[in-house]
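Person: Please comment on this record:
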Amino acid sequence: MPLYEYACKECAHQFEALVRANETPTCPACHATALDRRLSVFAAHTHGNGASDRMAEPGACGACGDPRGPGACSMN
């Protein structure tokens, strides 16, 4: 069962749902079925060498996949 990210067109609630091929997901906030499936991005943890750990760069935007990171596109 794949895990998908959705945004509700009715109330703009964003959520993740495990969805089977024959199921139609509903918004957990308002129970609407008018949903936009969002582009999912994954997170990866890296282990530094201990000498100079620094913050990891932000991942791709979840709305459009823009490699500049969250908030870089006009969709957010």
About this structure: The beta strands are 3-8, 14-18, 35-38. The chain has a mean pLDDT of 76.
